[in-house]
Prior knowledge:
Elements lengths: L1 H12 L9 E4 L4 E3 L5 E3 L2 E5 L3 E3 L2 E6 L14 E17 L13 E6 L10 E3 L3 E3 L4 E19 L12 E2 L2 E2 L12 E2 L7 E6 L5 E6 L8 E2 L2 E2 L3 E9 L4 E9 L4
Parallel strand pairs: 13-20
Antiparallel strand pairs: 1-6, 2-5, 3-4, 4-7, 6-7, 7-11, 8-9, 8-11, 10-11, 12-14, 15-16, 15-19, 17-18, 19-20
Amino acid sequence: MKKIIASLAFGFLLLPAVKLKAQLKVNSESLFIQNGTVFSTEGLTLVPSTDLQLNNLTISKQPSVVIFPKFNSIQRMYRFSKPLSFDGELALSYENVELNGNEAKNLVLTYAPMTSNNAKDFIQVTESVVNPDHRYIGQLFAKAILLSDITAVSMVASVAKPYADLEGNNMITPNGDGKNDTWIVKNIQLYPNNELKIFDREGRVVFTMFGYDNSWDGMFNGIPLQEDTYYYILTLDSGKGKKTGFISIVRDK
Length: 253
């Protein structure tokens, strides 16, 4: 592991300051990289274990983000114009502004054998070497991988409670002052596949909505509901998860 870190750190000393849309183009004459040689371009470092020959290939750096179910990638993507078979040390750099809400210490490499923006096509490397101080992340691939896209995402080892990031207010005051006028569920936008049902004390449904968007303002069929406590059921991901609780409506006299 020390050898990996040492060679990758050396590679990053060679990196110039570049903009995200720059790219490397290799024509039909090809580019030969001898095994063990540190090769870097646009913040991407390769140290192949076997001789590597590139031809008719473009490597571009893009500010693309892959949307994962519970986290998003950093705002940096390396895209190969055609799949590349690679074994050896590989690393990418990042800027703090590209973290996209991720914690640097939790980053892992993720790559796709095909060009894609679908998280299902990406393979996460759980043992990646991360150096937050120097802002790079790397990995040694002992066996060849097929590489088209590469980025990094944050990896959380375990989640104590599913959907713990969803937080709903327990009271609304719909008086038109622009404050607490609707029922807000924090982070509901991360779970668009949801269904909300709100019931009164008698068990009657007073509100229902697929894809709840924080818009309920205490109305039922255009009529303001009376001050009281109501019960809600928020179903998530086609029944995989569920949140329940109470909402109190308080109106100014």
